[in-house]
Structures are given as C-alpha cells and as structure tokens.
Amino acid sequence: MSAEEALDRAREAGIHLLRIPTPFAVGRVNCYLIDDEPLTLVDTGPNSGKALDELERQLEALGHPIADLELIIVSHQHIDHLGLVEIIAERSGAEVAAIDAVVRSVANFAADLEEEDRFAAELMIRNGIPEDLVIALRSVARSFRAWGGQVNVTRPLRDGETLTFRDRALEVQHRPGHSASDTLLWDAERRILFAADHLLAHISSNPLLSRSLDGSPGRRKALLDYIESLARTRELPAEIVLTGHGEAVTDHRALIDERLAQHRRRAEKIHALISERPRSAYEIAQELWGNVAVTQAFLTLSEVIGHLDLLIAEGRARELDEGEMVRFASTGNNEREGAD
Questions:
Q1: Fewer CB in 10 Å around end: N or C, the chain?
Q2: Which residue, among 115, 160, 284, 303, has the nearest Cα to 226 in the 3D structure?
Q3: pLDDT tens across 139-197, in order?
Q4: 320 in the Ramachandran plot: left (φ > 0), alpha (ψ -120 to 50) or beta?
Q5: How many CA atoms lie within 13 Å of 206's alpha carbon, on the beta-carbon side?
Q6: Angle at CA 205, nearest 5°, toward 203 and 209?
Q7: What are the E-state strand segments in 211-331?
C-alpha cells in the first residue's frame, strides 16, 4: 500500500488529513479531523494567523466550521502541535484532551517553558557549550514562544484507556521518547495508528532532552525511553500509521527496525570517539556534525547525550565529572547486550 492509498483508506474511515503551515524547518504539521461523534480534531498547528486561516479553510472544505468541533486531542506538548488549542476551544466550546502527565505543564505554558529553558541552558553549559552561545540560543528560543499557547485540559487521558466514539474506539497509548508526553491513538478494528511525531517517514524523530513531567529532579533519558516505546509500537499490527509530519507510514515494523539500526550506528560512532580520548558531549557533536552543532546546539546535544545514555546503560561508557563540566570516556568494554 502506498502512502496515498493509506490516506484514501483513512478518508473512507472518516479521517481527514489537514496540513497546516508552521514557521519551523520541519515544514507543515499534520492535523487530523475525525468525522465522528464527537467531531474531533487531533492537534491544531502553531499559534499564528496563517495557521488559523489555513486550518479554518481546510475544515470548511470538509463541511465543518471550527464551531462544530466537539473534542480536541493534543498528541504531545510541542508548540507546532498545540499552539492554536486555546483559540479553537474558545471558538467551539470543544473539550480538550491530553495525557494526564502533561496537564499541569501545558496549563502553565509560559512558566513551564521558562523553566525548560533554564534546564536546557544549564545542561548545555555543563556539557561544554560556550556560555555566549547558550545566551544566544535562549534568545532564539524565547522568540518561538509566541507560536505556542496555554492549554487548559478538560479531559485528562490515562495510558491504556479507550476513547469511545459513535463509530470507533481509540486506545490511548503513552509512548514517551521524542517528547515526554507523546501520545498515540490506536484503532485496533481498522488497524490505524495516530502516531504524531513518535514515528516519521522522512526523518528520524529526535528524542529531545527535557525535564521529567512529574517534576522530579534531573532529566529524562529520552533515547532510552524512545527505544522502549518503539519496541512496544513495533508489536502493534498496524497497517496505517498517520504521522505528525510528512507521509503516512505503511510498514512501521521495517521503519522502526531502520530507526533502531540508525541509533545503533550512531552509538558505535560515539563510542569510537570516546575510545580515542575523553570528550564533552559538545565536542562529540562538533565531530559528528561540524557547524550544525553550533546552529542547532540543543538538538545535536540531545542526540549525543541520548546515545551516551545508551552506552552507559550497556556498561561501555562513563561520565567524568570535572566540576563545572562533564566529559565522557569509554570503559574499555567493547561488548554490548544483544551483540552477536
């Protein structure tokens, strides 16, 4: 089945793709209208007049003004997916559903992002990124905040619960990794999975470093979470995966195997670098991506630290605390779990 055939099948099931513009390099975000009772929108796009106009136009082309919406489901906490939720909820009176773990943070959007920025800045400096670059990156991050917005969740979702519609049932599946709040919706009868950014056809979903949603100290081990989540998703007998960007996926097991192999190759490259000499995560990022490690410092740092977490979990790497900064070194153990 091709990606277009998958979308045709989704339309036959009352699921309509809305491609909404964003200001970000990833391009348009995929939102989905579920034409059922309740009439449901999965994700909204960023908080901008252009995105709102386009969302309204595409909904009306399907015969539904925004006022008709009865339920909005937020797939995860990133601003390109939830920026318009408050505006749309106010205009429609729709309930807003999101995984229970994220309710507090999205209700306190501005304060939570400020805390997340402080966390990111401390993490970057501790891992070798120069302070002047961190200050510049924080300034850029603040400029993006207007694309997001506060979200008052009226219907918290629990992992494993079922959302019942007139013509379908969707199982809620919390799959942390790309973000701490990644939430999938599984239609077992039709074998259709709403996956948002958990699995994308054209690019690897970056497991971004972040604080824990429950407020516990430290950071999530995002890549380890993501690998575990992918393994669970791989077991689903899905035929169509509706993604948050780009095309639908029609062979999720092959794609997941490819993504897991990519992570293994990257871990091995990083292990080779720290086997030469101890390095900071920023030094490793520069070795792997050159100047991209400067322009997209937090993104590449997330990649590197995620794979170092994997190597540490396997007993193949260790962290060297040098006071204000940390470096990473090989333990000299070249064996890994599951190796042939």
A1: C
A2: 303
A3: 877 777 777 888 899 999 999 999 999 999 999 999 999 999 999 999 999 999 999 99
A4: beta
A5: 14
A6: 145
A7: 240-243, 317-321, 326-330
